[in-house]
Amino acid sequence: MTDIRDDARAAFRDLFDREPDGLWSGPGRVNLIGEHTDYNDGFVLPFAIDRRTVAAVAVRDDRILRVASGFADELVELDLANLAPEALRGWSAYPLGVAWALGESELGERGADLGAVPGVDIFLDSDVPVGAGLSSSAAIECAVAVALNDVWQLGLNRKALARAGQLAENTAVGAPTGIMDQTASLFGEEGAAVFLDCRSLESRPVRLGLADAGLSLIVIDTATAHNLADGGYRDRRASCELAARTLGIPSLRDLDLDGLPHAKEVLDEVTFRRARHVVTENRRVLDTVRLLSQEGPGAIGDILTASHRSLRDDFEVSTPELDLAVETALGCGALGARMTGGGFGGAAIALLPETEDSLLRVAIDGAFAEHGYSQPDIFRVNASVGARRDT
Ligand code: GLA
Q1: Closest by alpha carbon to 301, among 272, 337, 271?
Q2: 194 CA distance to ligand 1 centroid (A)?
Q3: What is d(CA 244, CA 238) in angstroms, rounded to the nearest whole number?
Q4: From the DSSP assignment, how many helices (H) and strands (E) are in the chain?
Q5: Domain limits of the chain?
Q6: What pLDDT, on the 0 to 100 scale, is given for residue 109?
Q7: Global pTM?
Q8: Ligand 1 atom closest to Cα of 138?
Q9: What is the distance, to the nearest Å, from the Cα of residue 26 to the centroid of all Cα atoms in its chain?
Q10: Cβ atoms 252, 240 nearer than 8 A
Q11: Which CATH number fits domain 2-205: 3.30.230.10, 1.10.357.10, 2.60.40.10, 2.40.50.690?
């Protein structure tokens, strides 16, 4: 963490030839449970992780936005007057998309008047792995959102900043994602997950209690492709919307377990399985929240694994690599394991006794080698604080 902050500050100085006004940072996230439920108005339980994107930012005395980063060898420059989502390309669509979204009237009367704010120079650096399903994109969006909210003195609250991040992703980047990632990145707390009702947008922290239980959460990044602007995610979302339309309900949030037999009669087989995943996953999130507070994290393993099986069999967004990571983790002492994030590649998580950590690494490395898959990146994550000014 200290390293990226120092790096971002030094790179800002080198590139822009002055000191930044400040540093802001936004974390990536792991979704503990509640997958593909956010855009169905359902429940999610992600947490912010101790991997962050840092934004070094300084105000300019003209109307130019300039953005550069440690992950792309490019300086992108744009006049605020030309800031439109169609004009944004590649990685810079994330930070500049947020700048644009902050001016959208949808954020309410407190949306920024982009005609009245100064230009800024931004340098971004990050230790959130890209493409792992750990929301490196939300980390950028939220670091930039809190930074611009401060330097442009917008006074927007965190819900509005989360929506700005989502708007950037949906409109500038073109990925039709829900609001989970940005909410986790903005509302994260040390040692706690964020329980979010995606319909009311009410959220509250839920203590994880991992250290007290002698447990840790390990990420297994399979280093396989994961791109939410691609078709798979969009298709799944369309299936869920079709299911809700056919059933005559506003969204799949309005279907419960008792409604599944009727849904099975009216939906085609595939659409039914997509809907069944969402309905059972919402139930699993509520059960996880209850078990965490009543019995602690040692009690949630089976639910995590059930979530994986549902994503694999009903929602069909897992991959052979993710399945192998999950089954191998379960075979060597994990209490539960599941893919995390949108799927089609990316990362799995395993909940296991701290003492089994090295055993898991060896087992996963061995299993992946045996299958001829490239070696995954395996690391522990801790629930961490949300996006904030970082001096
Ligand atoms: C991605 C999206 C989220 C959510 C998950 C699946 O992370 O950005 O909005 O839909 O996939 O749970």
Answers
A1: 337
A2: 15
A3: 10
A4: 11, 12
A5: 2-205, 210-380
A6: 59
A7: 0.96
A8: 8
A9: 11
A10: yes
A11: 3.30.230.10
- Ligand 1 touching residue 341 (CB < 6 A): yes
Query: Angle at the Cα of 67 (from 61 to 72), degrees rounded to 5?
Result: 160
Tell me what the pLDDT averaged over the chain comes to: 95
Q: Are 297 and 351 in contact (CB under 8 A)?
A: yes
Distance CA 345, CA 325 (A): 11
Domain 210-380 sits in CATH 3.40.50.620: no
Place 131 in a pLDDT band, splitting at 50, 70 and 90: confident
Reported confidence tier of residue 176, pLDDT bands at 50, 70, 90: very high
Tokens for 237? 């979302």
Residue 361 pLDDT: 96
180 CB near ligand 1 (under 6 Å): yes
* Cα–Cα distance, 164 to 103 (Å, whole number): 9
The tokens describing 107, both together, are: 């954020």
Nearest to 384 by CA among 29, 123, 65: 29
Per-residue pLDDT of 15-57, as tens digits, reads 999 999 999 999 999 999 999 999 999 999 999 999 999 999 9
